[in-house]
Automatic annotation (TrEMBL):
It holds the Pfam family GreA_GreB_N. This is Transcription elongation factor GreA. PROSITE patterns: GREAB_1, GREAB_2. It comes from Litorimonas cladophorae. Belongs to the GreA/GreB family. The lineage of its organism: Bacteria, Pseudomonadati, Pseudomonadota, Alphaproteobacteria, Maricaulales. One of its GO terms (molecular function) is DNA binding.
C-alpha cells in the first residue's frame, strides 16, 4: 500500500493550482515554442529547440510529481480540530528556554513548509519533537549548534 502524506487544505489547493497552471498555460506555451524552434531549420545546432525541449522535460516531470503527490495526499483541515495537544496542522507558540525568544509555527506538509511564513514541515526536527506534547510541556531539539530547550506556550488550530 502506498504511504499517504499529510497536507493541509490550503497546501492541497496550492498544489492543484500549480498543476492546473502547468497543464493549461506552461505546457501549451512550450509545445508552441518547440514548434516555432523546429521551423528554424537544423535541430542539431538549434539552441532554442534544445532549450525548449529541456524546459518541456522539466514541466512534464513536475506535472507527474504533482499528480503523484496529490493522489497520495491525506488532506487535513486544521480548522476542524481543537485541543491543546500538538498534532499535524497545529499552530504552536513556543519559547526558547535559554533566550526567552518566542516563536510561532504551524506544522504542515513537506511541500507547504516555509519558515519565513511560520510554516514548518511535519518531518522537521522541531516539529517531530513537538508532536503529542501539550501546553506547558518542555521539549528538546538537537541541532547542529547543540541542544535547545523549548516550552509550549499555546496550541491552536485555525
Amino acid at each position: 500500500m502506498m504511504q499517504k502524506f499529510p497536507m493541509t487544505v490550503h497546501g492541497h489547493a496550492a498544489l492543484e493550482a500549480e498543476l492546473k497552471h502547468l497543464k493549461s498555460v506552461e505546457r501549451p506555451e512550450i509545445i508552441n515554442a518547440i514548434s516555432v524552434a523546429r521551423d528554424h531549420g537544423d535541430l542539431k545546432e538549434n539552441a532554442e529547440y534544445h532549450a525548449a525541449k529541456e524546459k518541456q522535460g522539466f514541466i512534464e516531470g513536475r506535472i507527474q510529481e504533482l499528480e503523484s503527490k496529490l493522489s497520495l495526499a491525506q488532506v487535513i483541515d486544521p480548522s476542524s480540530m481543537s485541543g491543546e495537544v500538538v498534532r499535524f496542522g497545529a499552530t504552536v507558540k513556543i519559547v526558547n528556554e535559554d533566550t526567552d525568544v518566542e516563536s510561532t509555527y504551524q506544522i504542515v506538509g513537506e511541500d507547504e513548509a516555509n519558515v519565513k511564513d511560520g510554516k514548518i514541515s511535519i518531518t522537521s526536527p522541531i516539529a517531530r519533537a513537538m508532536i503529542t506534547k501539550e501546553v506547558g510541556d518542555g521539549f528538546e531539539v538537537v541541532a547542529p549548534g547543540g541542544s535547545k530547550l523549548y516550552e509550549i506556550l499555546e496550541v491552536f488550530y485555525k
